[in-house]
Specification:
Strand content: 5-15%
CATH class of the largest domain: Alpha Beta
CATH topology of the largest domain: Rossmann fold
Strand order of the largest sheet: 4-3-9-10
Number of strands: 15
CATH architecture of the largest domain: 3-Layer(aba) Sandwich
Bound molecules: zinc ion
Shape: elongated
Order of helices and strands: EEEHEHHHEEEEHEHEEEHHEHHHHHHEE
Number of helices: 14
Structural class: alpha/beta
Number of domains: 3
């Protein structure tokens, strides 16, 4: 039985979706005003891991991740770049999709854009106004009146008097226009800095506030109530609290059953920031051999509620750990021992699946689940050493890894070597084998050294030579 830590109740809860085996899941996606940094990707990797594990557990998942393509930052960026909002945001959005692909993050069912939901947003604000939760201030912007929403602050465990600061989040309207400093903008009246970015509304031209965008897209695409809502822990307050206040003031139903939050990423034990020079994009970690997969592995080895400390050394250690798994897969591919231990191996596999699920069901305890994978590999390596793995056992073991990898996605997603490189290696191996046949061992060894310099490791099995990237 899967248990997840719910930010709302601050405890592990048994996961039971609203309707049988169907899961409605929403993750706050990127604001496309710049390239997305690796901190954001840790949240999307977490969301992907949960989705994969839900699928493994027999659930069907309907997941949505939004694209914030209008807010203060996108408007500022596009005006500075002298391009339209769409032109400006599109290149970052495209890079984002490319990165997701590289990370082997499963595609969400939908990636809605805030700017495509303006009608729905206006409808919601009108409803909030009607229900007495929204008011238009003198500056023409429309605000949410947090004093009207009784449980405001519950998600972040805040007392009402603590809400005087910060609740406005990313609003930039003049504070004195609002009745209460904690009130946040639902609709922002157009001002000069917005240029020609504006939409008509019953309150005059303007644009939506950031928080209402998520409520609108969720309600339109997934309904009034959803099972899981994910985001970085910095979104708990005010963003997610505001989503609850907006949606529940309209529906009068519990909006989200399970709130899950990903802890921050740190770099060299410091907050990642451009000014500290420790700010990384995915392409910065992808420069080394199997870098992107090593990053996925690194993120998965730490529990999602523990802050992950990213360092060059930890990435390197992850790449090395991954290589152990890759080597194991390679050994299975060429295993030609006897199949006289089939039953024992089968039992080890069953036991390994049990342990994997035991840990994953415990609020996705990935560090322990991965540890059991390595214990398993060490155990089977002994059988391989003793030539007790034949074709049948190897196939069973490979299938087992493939099943696990539907959740991990860091084993069979190994970076493919490019064709030119492959050809060069094959040519060198062929000429080395020719030299060996002619008993020209000095030349053959020279080629082996050359291959080693290319990080290529070779193993001779009779007539055949197998090679792997170290
Ligand atoms: Zn959101």
């Amino acid at each position: 039985m899967l248990k997840l830590y719910n930010t709302l109740s601050r405890q592990n809860e048994i996961f039971v979706p609203l309707t049988d085996k169907k899961v409605k899941m929403y993750t706050c996606g990127p604001t496309v005003y710049n390239y997305i940094h690796i901190g954001n990707y840790t949240t999307y990797l977490f969301s992907d891991l949960l989705k994969r594990y839900l699928l493994h557990s027999g659930f069907r998942v309907n997941d949505v991740m939004n694209i914030t393509d209008v807010d203060d930052k996108t408007i500022k960026g596009s005006s500075e770049a002298g391009s339209t909002l769409t032109d400006f945001t599109q290149k970052y959005e495209q890079t984002f999709y490319d990165d997701l692909k590289q990370l082997h993050i499963l595609k969400a069912k939908k990636y809605p854009h805030a700017t495509h939901y303006i009608k729905q947003i206006i409808k919601l604000i009108k409803q909030l106004e009607k229900n007495g939760f929204a008011y238009q201030a003198e500056d023409k912007s429309v605000y949410y009146d947090i004093s009207e929403f009784e449980s405001y602050g519950k998600l972040a465990n805040l007392e009402n008097q603590n809400l005087k600061t910060g609740a406005a989040g990313r609003t930039n309207s003049d504070e004195y226009e609002k009745d209460n400093v904690g009130d946040f903008a639902l609709w922002k009246a157009h001002n000069q800095a917005d240029g020609d970015i504006k939409w008509d509304s019953p309150w005059g031209p303007g644009r939506p506030g950031w928080h209402i965008e998520c409520s609108a897209m969720i309600m339109k695409l997934l309904g009034d109530q959803i099972d899981i809502h994910i985001g970085g822990e910095d979104l708990i307050f005010p963003h997610h609290q505001n989503e609850i206040a907006q949606t529940e003031a309209i529906t009068e139903k519990q909006f989200v059953k399970y709130w899950l939050h990903k802890a921050h990423l740190k770099v060299d034990n410091k907050k990642m920031s451009k000014s500290l020079g420790n700010f990384f994009l995915l392409k910065d970690v992808a420069t080394e051999n199997s870098g992107v997969m090593a990053f996925r592995f690194l993120v998965t080895t730490s529990h999602y509620r523990q802050p992950l400390n990213f360092t060059r050394e930890s990435l390197q250690a992850s790449a090395e750990a991954l290589n152990k798994i890759y080597n194991f897969v390679d050994r299975l591919n060429i295993a030609n021992g006897s199949d006289n231990q089939l039953e024992k191996i089968e039992r080890l596999i069953t036991e390994n699946v049990k342990q994997f699920e035991l840990y994953m069901n415990d609020d996705l305890n990935t560090p322990n689940a991965i540890a059991t994978l390595f214990t398993f590999i060490n155990e089977i390596n002994k059988y391989l050493d003793q030539k007790q793995v034949g074709g049948k056992a190897a196939k069973m073991l490979t299938n087992h890894l493939k099943q696990l990898d539907k959740v991990w996605a860091f084993i069979f997603t190994r970076k493919k070597v490019d064709k030119n490189f492959e050809q060069r290696v094959e040519t060198l191996i062929k000429s080395r084998n020719d030299h060996r046949k002619n008993r020209n061992f000095a030349e053959a060894d020279k080629i082996r050294d050359e291959l080693a310099k290319m990080n290529v490791e070779i193993k001779d099995e009779g007539e055949k030579t197998h090679w792997t990237i170290k």
